[in-house]
Amino acid sequence: MRLAVITDIHGNAAALDAMLEDAASRGLRDIICLGDIASGAGWPRETVEMLQATGIPCVRGNHDRWISEHDPETMGKQDRLAYDELSADQRRWLLDLPQALEPAPGVLAVHGSPGQDVQNLIEEIVAERLRRAPMAVLRERLGEAGMAARVVLCGHSHRTGLVQVPGGPLVLNPGSLGLPGFRISREPAHRQEAGSPHARYAVLHLDGTAPPQVEMLAIAYDWEAAAKRAEDVGFNAAWPHVLRTGLLPESA
Hints:
Layout: E1 2-6, H1 13-25, E2 30-33, H2 44-54, H3 62-69, H4 77-85, H5 88-95, E3 101-104, E4 107-109, E5 123-126, E6 129-132, H6 135-148, E7 151-153, E8 161-164, E9 170-173, E10 181-184, E11 190-193, E12 199-205, E13 213-219, H7 223-232, H8 238-245
Parallel strand pairs: 1-2, 4-7, 7-9
Antiparallel strand pairs: 1-12, 3-4, 5-6, 8-9, 10-11, 12-13
Domain Calcineurin-like phosphoesterase: 1-183
Organism: Neoroseomonas terrae
Family: Belongs to the metallophosphoesterase superfamily. YfcE family.
């Protein structure tokens, strides 16, 4: 089995469309999405419609949940754009997505960590940057369900990562499909930069009892169109800049 893994689209329908074309060119039929689907500076409605039309199984991310749970008047700009552009039925679809899926025997798919959609699984925050968490921390976050799995698929951090837990699962984060960098100002403040504007996804290869193999992919797409869309819907300079470069303005 070959399973394409995407996560953290954040309303970037241009990146999703390019990924689907790339997957088709590789003969990939099985795809799973790990959440944070619509909230962003892009095309929330079109992104949801594409996923619904293709029937791609999705787990729910924290932003998918927040769009329904938070008061629109207190939402951040990316959640408010999604709230305004999505129908009530589309918002309900996002809220009703499962917190976890098993796309193949022994494979656990979550957004953040098992049971917590706002907790990074592989990383910890040090000096406002993400770095790989100690193995003891990773084991604790995996919990019983994660440690029992053969493979755990996660997102949320937007940071590509692959960790083999001794005596436990292979943990895979494909990186963000639609948002290659961000800055969080609330505590704990931190930032993440992919370093390039490419759309990232992964392919998990499963072949019987053989060790799983992984391809990490970074594909070109029309990121200028995505950046222009962010400008057109009124986002400040940082969001278009990171879409164009994969870097925050201060790093560039």
